[in-house]
Amino acid sequence: MEPTITAVSAINSKENFAEELEAKLPELKEKEGFPIGSDNDILSLSEPPFYTACPNAFLNDFIQRNGTPYLEEIDTYRREAYLGDISESKEDTLYNLHTYHTKVPPKAIMKKILHYTNPGDIVLDGFAGTGMTGLAAFLCSSSSTVNEVTNKTHLKGIAKSGLRKAILNELSPIAAFICKNYGQGTDASEFKKHATRILTEVQDECGWMFQCNHKNEIATIDYTVYSDVFICPFCSSDVIFWDVGVDVEKKRNKSEFFCNSCNAELTNLTLKRKFIDFIDDKVYQLADIKPVMIAYSYNGKKYTKEVDEADIALLKKIDLLKIPYWYPKNELPEGYNTAQPKKSHGLIRVDFFYSKRNLYATAAIYDRILKSPELVKHSLLFWLMSIMLGQTKMNRYFEASYSQVNRYLKGTLYVGKKISEVNFIYSLRGKLEKISKNLVYENKENCFVSTGSVTELLIPDNSIDYIFTDPPFGGNIMYSELNFIWESWLKIFTNIKEEAIVNGIQNKSLSSYTMLMEKAFKEYYRVLKPKRWITVEFHNSRSDIWNAIQSSLLKAGFIVSSVSIFDKVQETFKQMTSTNAVKSDLAISAFKPSKSFEERFLKQGGNNLEVEFIEQFLSMQPVQPVLERTDKMLYSKMLAYYIQHGYEIRYDSKSFYHQLNQYFASEDGFWFTSGQINSYIEYKKRMKLDGMSEVKSGGMMLFVTDEKSAIIWLYSFLNGPKTFAEVHIAFTQLTNIQGDDVPELRELVEENFINENGSYRRPMNEPEHNLITEKREKALQREFESLIVKAQIEKGKIKLVRKEALLFGFETCYKTRRYQDILTVTNKLDRSIIENSSELNDFVEAAEIMVKGME
User: What pTM was computed for the model?
Assistant: First the structure.
């Protein structure tokens, strides 16, 4: 691959840029998310301009060299929302080179990048994690990988292979460091040479610590199994869990076990852990653990044996050694994940997580890495960090698996009853080969990495071509806690002030999380070019977190185009109309409107721009029968955008439908711009479709979870007259409605469709549509008014409502400025009803703002 032509001759000189970075540190320290660490450690770890262990001051230079300035009058970019499969296997060697708490497979990200960008475009991920977005951008340069990824998708034969540039930003120093290595690659031959040298040197120094006897011959330990020691509550004898609680032959824990001294029946609840004194700078209490089994190699064969006196003597000898290298002794912070190892095993310091010999070997390797040539220092440290957590006491023994490498429980700092202490050679040798074979590219000038908060990016306005992001979702993962061991070795820590999580110990509520996410998406909005896209991956089952994400996107100014679900059980790709299905993995597609529209919208307060909003929205949709083209979804999108901006809503369902008829074209119940309708007709001919019997396109099906999605499905199904029996059979096969007091199917059909000669069909013209709308809205209004009365007289919370009636009532109150009525009803509703619907939540937030403004 040809290197980027740079504007300065010294682009590969770290020293020149290091001096500049050092000079800028005082200014950079004022930026949000600046990490916790000394200047020397930050400068030492950085490799400017490509990677900095603090906010990257060279991003603007990178964009000036590689980016294309945005000028609306000559901008020809046009992309429709991505429509396709989002499933990708995680069984990929490159993907698995370094473990982390959560990752998105790079080939899944590639599909989005190939769809939304052209070769040479700049892609941004501000919550970069381990840098899979940067890796995906690089992999786009491989035509064979592009062909593999796009096969059986709409991108086949269309996607243009070619390198995309990447800017990766991470709050966590360890994550940013991993980003650097994944995104920029290494000199594979130099890496392998120095990694092999280090292994040989440390093997010579520490190899004796990992030896045992095999028939009076010296063998090499692969791993040693340790067991927790408990105290019997009945006889106070020591109880080694391995001896009483493990069925070695069946390779599993016993459901019942007994004290081997008094034979009393024991349970996990009655056992009391035994602690012993550990003397360092003071006396510490550590959980007592005993070695119980050794797996070893001799002459190329594998064996296991019980621990004998010689093994115990070796461990005692090692315990008396003084480690001649630096290693971290940082105390763990207070946290949800740090509580378990502290309480259960007394592991209050980072070094306590290691056995003495693994700590010695790790420190010896780390010391040699720091003294290695600059060319490979980072890739060597990446190599060590990739097995770092698996070398601790968190590494659980798996009876059913021979390999014990990195068997710790991800997403927590859990220490189990059975620990597998792995030989560092056993762990690192396999990773050495995998890294030298897969991390074989050098991509420094095409991927810049920054360590800091996404809320303050050092990137110019309107300069990014596409954003892919997988942000933290509420309290799912406490990244700074989980990264503390890694970051202790780096000597640079996450600045938790800007960490977007829900965490009571950090005094971060849902509202503070939402505020941080709003700041993040506003920053995304600022740097993204108009008419470009952002993709947000979502992995959280809590509806309130989901609403916070959607609300943050809208408040930033983005227009949410679609929300898609990949159902791993049914292996189908589904669209959704509401927020009741957040237990699945979701992909949100949103775009930044054109600059001229945004300026007029703000200047005119949205007045008389409804049609232009729909025009722009439809133009960004694929010319296929997607849900977003139905009148109900178009109306919802317009409402959400206007409410989030606090502007008056001048349309109701009938007047909105009239505008659709006047300015847009309809086919099969879907709406198109005048420039799209012919393309859709051609699409139907090409796909041999004669109308649509159900909302389905490219393997995409509607996810029916509530009344709105049910009506949209029915509208699509009733493209021609059908009996109620036909409707009933089809409808009951795919519905999963929960938490919504939806009328019976017969009532839904009668209320929303035309009864003609005993069969039902959708309304086919504006008069029929208006007739149905009037009838439906009268029913919804009656229900809402009765709900207001109920809210005024009921003592307890209302736990189930018809959400369509609630939504219609809130909309009516908003238009007529009856904001207090919205709040009166909301205060009587069970909290989950509002949390489960971003549409309802929008009206509630708007009403609260309006009421406060009138006080």
Answer: 0.89
